Amino acid sequence: MGAAEPVVERESEEVEVRGENGEKKEEGEERDVEKGEEVGFEYEEQAVAAESNTNDDHNQRDVHMSMMHRLNPTNPLRIVINSNTRAATPPPPSRFSHGSNNIRVGATPSPPHFSHTPPHSQPRSTPNPQPSITTLNSRKYTNKISLFLFLLHMVAAIGLVGFLIFKGVQGLIEASDNRVKRAEKRVLKFFLPQVEAASLLSITLAFAWQKAVRVWPKFFVHFILWTTFLMSLSAGILLICFQKPASDGVGVCFIAFAIGNGLYACWITQRIGFCSKILIKSLEPVSKFPDLNQPTYWMLGVGFLWMSLWNLAVIGALNFYFTPLMIVLLVLSLAWTAEVMRNVANITVSRVISLYYLRGMQSNTKFCFQRALSKSLGSACFGSLFVPAIEALRIVARALNLLEGEDEFMFSCAHCCLRVMESIFRYGNGWAFVQIAAYGKGFVKASQDTWELFERQEMEQIVDSDITSSICFLTGVCSGSMCVIVVAAWTATVHQSFTATISLLAFFIGYLMTRIAMALPHACVGSYLVCYAENPDNRLFDSTIKDRLALMKSGRDVAILTPRVPRRFAAR
Fold first, then answer.
1. ∠ CA(543), CA(545), CA(548), 5° rounding?
2. Residue 216 phi/psi, 5° resolution?
3. In angstroms, rounded to a whole number, what is the distance separating the alpha carbons of residues 438 and 135?
């Protein structure tokens, strides 16, 4: 009996391993099973000797014994044998009949000295049930309706771009009116080169910004805040100097934005230090994945080619019916397409980084990219429609909170808007892409679960005060402003009447290309915060967030929050 105890415990361990790994067995399992069977059937051999069975019976017993060695650890007969070896109950029977799925046991007499159970027998140990773990390899497609609408939109956009390019070439070659031909040639000569130059400059700046944020993250935050202010202010002043009504209007918009940017840079001074620490810490895993930038580079390359064709389509739309409507449709299509490209890169990076934090896995970037382009593409399309609107509403809510005063009407409007923002943040936020990438959830479900994680860890203040999305946005504005300065100065010397139009297109292209490139740092910060909220005790996280929360709770650190509904009004 003393020898049987450790054998049974090893058996129990083998059952637990099998419960975790399915049908797979360890190499030492058969050896342990054989030891258990040898001890368990020692009494059976004594009963067989007492009954003096024939040689045929012995041969049959050997066959069944070999079958017992191959029994599954969870088979009922094995459980009975384990119980016998631990509790010293009567030995197993001497006759076996093998069925299709189990083995039926007949009754046999047992030796007299084993006919009773010891008074202190231990119960048979059973494996504890393992908690269910959310799958990390969901095979279903998310947000299928959004995916269908985006694919339908892409088919229509490709057809429209191809048609407009064809009409532009047809008007240049086959137009019977010399005036039309001159207009086409003028556009090709004074419009197309500048726009294509803006595309080339924008992709160059995109690569430069992504490299800079990975190498000098702390310096980059300060640099981009004030460089964007200077570039947007310079672009506005330059456009006003041309003294054209259209360029003056665009220049005033740039100057107004520059003033707001400067005020914002002063307003968030207290948050820059903490956000720089988070950015530095979140970018540390990037060095473990040398190919993590490749999905972003692919998106930039595809975006550059598509924007080059898009520029030709805009030229074709200038000499087509309903020119304003065509240009508006092209702009909306390009904005959605570029946002989807950015979120595909975001989901790819988020999956690689989040699996590293949650499971310690070294994921294959190529497979994560393929998954983002297939299973998670619907969520990327759905989020691309709503996240920019959510960010815009967030800015409006902050502005209303600053304007709130003693006026009762403004007070009511501000809190009404804040209640709307409260529900929007819960059902749709940019942090959802981390759970979309990791668990394959839909956009709304991922938004809800992510916000619940933040509330559970009391991280709402930290999330609301994060400036990573603002830094990425300002980086895009900085690139767009640089493109405007170069293109506007060039256009003013060759064909000044095109200055305002080309400046807007250059800014739009520069902004979109840079936002695609900034998907990597944005995804890294998002993965760091969401994975910390899910498992704050992970050894990969330091005490940065924990110390910040302690300071906030003690009142020694004040964060400027995204305006939220005060608790005294939430119950109304």
1. 105
2. -125, 70
3. 9
Strands (E), 15-102: 96-98
- CA 120 and chain centroid, separation: 56
Read off the pTM: 0.73
- In the 8-state DSSP scheme, what is residue 114? G
Task: Say if residues 69 and 47 touch (Cβ distance below 8 Å).
Answer: no
* DSSP state, residue 374: T
Question: 214 in a domain, yes or no?
Answer: yes
Does 178 fall in a domain?
yes
Tell me: the pLDDT tens digits for 523-561?
999 999 999 999 998 889 988 899 888 888 887 665 555
The whole domain housing 335 covers: 144-554
Query: 105: which DSSP letter?
Result: E
Total of domains in the chain:
1
- Chain segment 4-14, per-residue pLDDT in tens: 333 333 333 33
Rounded CA gap, 126 and 114, in Å?
24
Q: How far, in Å, CA of 86 to CA of 532, rounded?
A: 45
Residue 410 region by backbone torsions, left for phi larger than 0, else alpha for psi between -120 and 50, else beta: alpha
Q: Could you give phi then psi for residue 120, rounded to 5 degrees?
A: -115, 40
Please indicate, yes or no, if residue 74 is contained in any of the structural domains.
Answer: no
Distance (Å, rounded) from C-alpha 431 to C-alpha 462?
13
Q: Per the domain annotation, does 36 fall within a domain?
A: no
Evaluate whether 517 touches 210 at the Cβ level (below 8 Å): yes
Structural Rg of the chain based on CA atoms: 35
State whether residue 111 is helix, strand or coil: coil
CB-CB contact of 472 with 558 (8 Å): no
